[in-house]
Design a protein that fits this description.
- The complex is a heterodimer of chains A (about 270) and B (about 270).
- Chain A is mostly helical and about 270 residues long.
- Chain A contains 13 helices and no strands.
- Helix content of chain A is about 80%, strand content about 0%.
- In chain A, helix 2 packs across helix 13.
- The radius of gyration of chain A is 23 Å and the shape is globular.
- Chain B is mainly α and about 270 residues long.
- The chains are: A mainly alpha (about 270), B mainly alpha (about 270).
- Chains A and B meet through helix 1, helix 3, helix 5, helix 6 and helix 7 of A and helix 1, helix 3, helix 4, helix 5 and helix 6 of B.
């Protein structure tokens, strides 16, 4: 058992690191409500006018729509490409797992800024819409994360037996997958989709360099505002932060939900 | 067989179109001139040009220092995290994940709000008459900024490692008369060292590939390999994609080498253990 000093120390250290990490975010949130904050300890007054200015700006809604569309497209493509493979490898070919696992270090040896050089060299002059290349590239770079989450979803059950029983009972492969496998891994798939969506929503490097800033997503807009209008940018950063916080909250709730029954199960066995 | 093909087809097309072809073209283009002729001039430029040396040196410096500082804090943090309640642990891991995703433009902007020339910190210190310190737009500033995503990443990578350590080992070695120092050196260290090396390499590589934060924070003030590649692509220097490919090739080579060396080091450690 842990002594109370040890537990206090653990809480204190975690709290300290946590404060360090959220300090800039907190300052930005307060700043977004401040009328003016130049030579005082606290802002001079609080206001919502920066929010009203940003939200009513057509550039903002256009950027938001672009980002949402981009993220949705990326998520669908990522799932269509990765889910069948992760399923197949887990159920029928576990020996391929080690090879697939190798791709999880991919974004570290070939991050976006490296990949984009080759993509430009290949596709800059071809008559293929750059936005399609962008969606595919973001999907690929999200692979390690998606793979990890999807792979974890397959660990719990013997899916091979379940799937084959369904086939024996006369179900065709795709309906069998949808009816028997999918309900068991749906929270895993949902988490994977959420994470892919978030990473596409926050993508900057590829969007900026591949499309040369012509396709103004939320992040590109944020950078433009940052150069010109501090107040509006702090509002946008706060909104972006709230988006991330909302996604995190959903993830926490899913994990709580997924963990409670499994803990009870292990207590019984 | 036909089913297998159907399953791997979309994935295969994606990998070939977006990964294999571009990486091969990147390798080839690194030996090409702007109009397509073969040349070694790009590599010659990288070797002789002082500005390019500076980019490589800055990248190595920032990445080495941030990875080093972040892994130390992450070790302390991940270790402390294992001692909290299960539900708190999971919530905190998700929150660390969130603060790692906050990297880039929002992080750079937040830091400018907090520590920039017209920032909150300056407002507070001016009001109190304190010295202002920290220049955010410098090499030190960039290093400082990187810790905001490197620390949470490090904690997320290290947490599972510390979670696996068995608290009974400590009791066992204490019963056998081992001191705390001996226990850490002889029992814990051999188990976690390969993981520490691995996580250090991941953090180092991640910092090396960071474009967004560096660019948003310092523009092209502080030149690193990624910001240099960015500038060569969008024409802030003279646009020169083949030269960008050369830097990208050097980067990929360097990273492959580091990951390979890291694997060798950790593997030999495993064999000894």
């Amino acid at each position: 058992m842990l002594s109370s000093t040890e537990r206090f120390y653990a809480r204190f250290v975690t709290l300290l690191i946590f404060i360090y990490l959220v300090m800039p975010i907190l300052a930005t949130i307060v700043y977004s409500f401040a009328t003016s904050w130049v030579k005082t300890i606290l802002p001079e007054g609080l206001t919502l006018k920066w929010y009203q200015q940003l939200v009513t700006n057509p550039d903002f809604s256009a950027a938001l729509v672009r980002s949402l569309g981009l993220s949705l497209g990326t998520t669908l493509i990522a799932m269509a490409c990765f889910l069948p493979v992760v399923f197949y490898v887990n159920v029928y070919a576990p020996s391929l797992k080690a090879k697939l696992h190798f791709i999880t270090i991919l974004p570290f040896t070939i991050p976006g800024i490296i990949l984009v050089t080759g993509l430009i060299q290949v596709y800059a002059n071809l008559p293929i819409p750059k936005s399609l290349i962008l969606v595919l590239a973001i999907a690929l770079l999200s692979l390690p994360l998606t793979y990890q989450v999807l792979n974890n979803a397959f660990i719990a059950h013997d899916f091979r037996a379940m799937f084959e029983q369904a086939l024996v009972l006369g179900e065709r492969p795709i309906p069998a997958f949808l009816k028997v496998i999918l309900p068991n891994i749906k929270s895993g798939i949902f988490v994977a989709m959420l994470l892919t969506f978030t990473s596409a929503f926050g993508e900057y490097v590829l969007t900026n360099l591949l499309l040369g800033g012509n396709f103004e997503t939320l992040k590109i807009y944020m950078y433009r505002l940052m150069q010109s209008n501090g107040q509006a940018s702090s509002v946008l950063t706060t909104i972006y932060f709230l988006f991330l916080a909302f996604i995190s909250l959903i993830l926490i709730l899913i994990m709580r939900h997924a963990n409670t029954p499994s803990k009870e199960r292990s207590k019984h066995s | 067989m036909a089913n297998r093909l159907k399953i791997f087809l979309p994935f295969g097309i994606l990998v070939v179109l977006i990964l294999i072809i571009p990486v091969l073209v990147m390798l080839i283009a690194s030996f090409q001139t702007l109009d397509g002729g073969l040349t070694l001039d790009n590599y010659h430029q990288v070797i002789t040009n002082r500005y390019y040396h500076l980019a490589i040196l800055n990248s190595l410096k920032i990445s080495g220092i941030t990875a080093g500082v972040s892994i130390v804090i992450a070790i302390v943090g991940a270790h402390a995290l294992t001692k909290l309640q299960t539900s708190t642990k999971q919530a905190l891991i998700t929150l660390f994940n969130m603060s790692a995703s906050f990297a880039g433009v929002p992080l750079a902007f937040s830091l400018i709000i907090l520590f920039g020339n017209a920032g909150v910190w300056r407002a507070i210190t001016t009001a109190l008459g304190w010295p202002n310190g920290l220049n955010l737009y410098s090499l030190t500033g960039a290093t400082f900024a990187y810790t905001f995503f490197e620390i949470p990443l490090g904690i997320m990578f290290l947490f599972p490692v510390f979670e696996e350590l068995n608290p009974q080992w400590r009791e066992a070695s204490a019963v056998l008369g081992a001191s705390r120092g001996f226990f850490l050196r002889q029992v814990i260290l051999p188990v976690i060292l390969p993981n520490l090396v691995e996580v250090f390499i991941l953090l180092f590589a991640n910092a090396m590939g960071t474009y967004e934060t560096a660019f948003a924070l310092t523009g092209n003030n502080i030149v690193t390999i990624p910001t240099l590649i960015g500038a060569l692509i969008n024409g802030e220097l003279t646009a020169n994609v083949p030269l960008a490919c050369t830097f990208a090739t050097i980067f990929a080579g360097l990273m492959t080498l580091i990951v390979w060396v890291g694997n060798r080091v950790t593997r030999s450690k495993w064999e000894v253990a």
